[in-house]
């Protein structure tokens, strides 16, 4: 028996899902916050994926992949997040952090990237890479200025 392609009988049958006003407001607030953070830090995430590797009663291990740009310098991150639940609350730790940057000036920042990887310190990576990318942008503008003037 041949399979018929799905076709709607009429446009009236399909209705867009309705979201509560609170959910719409929350989503708009998140978009606004993300836009502010991207302008403030220069970090623009492009892709993010999460995969749960292990989940037991009080322990969860998830693998994250994040890629994007920071002031036009690309980066890729991969790490595991270990979450432990106890009576005191939930604790989380970053493990197996791997950082890939595609910058010509990579040698200037490789030591601090290695340190961030060893310590599993995402904050160190984002702070250092943001500052580094911003200064690379300033350096390029300065060189262009002198190239035009001379």
TrEMBL record:
InterPro entries: CENP-P (IPR027801). It comes from Alligator mississippiensis. Pfam families: CENP-P. GO terms for cellular component: chromosome, centromeric region; nucleus. The lineage of its organism: Eukaryota, Metazoa, Chordata, Craniata, Vertebrata. One of its GO terms (biological process) is CENP-A containing chromatin assembly. This is Centromere protein P. It comes from the Eukaryota.
